[in-house]
């Protein structure tokens, strides 16, 4: 089954404790991205990747890191999480970039206390 | 960069009535306009999209219209049903490797 898989689904952590949210897709998509969803703000892009080893900042990259060492994986790293990073996070992939259908993961609900 | 505004933020309709959601965008070079539906607790999923060389597109009870001159596009849902209750997001992008800019979302509630 074609899918984008994120882990974990729920995470509660403390301020400053490094964490990684994993994202994997099995559709051989070149384009992957991370979004955060906050009430009233919609989906805001954090980082995107056009291919292996090619990444770029989205609209809200501060406090986040990404890497794309393999085509299928695009982890999101929070080196020192803060409470303002409490949010719902979605990973997405698409075959041809921003102007083709984006397939989203199930989402990760992150709470930083 | 691109900025997308979406209205209304909430929309309550009676079952069987029509619903219209409107979005405006700022960059005249944008050429792809998808709409995503997010049911409660679920991931966003594409329901329809339109490219800048097309003025209107329909798929059963949903349709999207695009006015490039005015830089706005709209989602129309006819004969609404309770399963249409969800948050709907519009988005715009101007190139294949660029950012997909989303609107803030519209919460649609269809009451029986």
Low-pLDDT regions of chain A:
none
Rg over C-alpha atoms of chain A, rounded to the nearest angstrom: 13 Å
Spatial shape of chain B? globular
| First-to-last CA distance of chain B | 41 Å
Largest interface: A-B, 25 and 27 residues
Major beta sheet summary of chain B: 6 strands, mixed
Count the beta strands of chain B.
11
**Could you state the oligomeric state of the chains shown?**
heterodimer
Order of helix and strand elements from N to C terminus of chain B: EEEEEEEEEEE
Structural class of chain A: mainly beta
Strand content of chain B: over 45%
**Beta-strand content estimate of chain A:** over 45%
Explain what you see.
- The complex is a heterodimer of chains A (113) and B (112).
- Chain A contains no helices and eleven strands.
- Chain A is mainly beta and 113 residues long.
- In chain A, strand 4 and strand 5 form a beta hairpin.
- With 112 residues, chain B is mostly beta strands.
- Chain B has strands spanning 4-7, 10-14, 19-25, 32-38, 45-51, 56-59, 62-67, 72-77, 86-92, 101-102, 106-111.
- In chain B, the strands form two sheets. In chain B, strands 2, 4, 5, 9, 10 and 11 form a six-stranded mixed β-sheet that branches. A five-stranded antiparallel β-sheet of chain B has the order 1-3-8-7-6, with no helix packed on it.
- Chains A and B meet through strand 4 and strand 5 of A and strand 4, strand 5 and strand 10 of B.
Helices and strands, with pairings:
The complex is a heterodimer of chains A (113) and B (112).
Chain A: E1 4-7, E2 10-13, E3 19-25, E4 31-38, E5 42-51, E6 54-57, E7 65-66, E8 76-78, E9 87-94, E10 103-104, E11 108-112
Parallel strand pairs in A: 2-11
Antiparallel strand pairs in A: 1-3, 3-8, 4-5, 4-9, 5-6, 7-8, 9-10, 9-11
Chain B: E1 4-7, E2 10-14, E3 19-25, E4 32-38, E5 45-51, E6 56-59, E7 62-67, E8 72-77, E9 86-92, E10 101-102, E11 106-111
Parallel strand pairs in B: 2-11
Antiparallel strand pairs in B: 1-3, 3-8, 4-5, 4-9, 6-7, 7-8, 9-10, 9-11
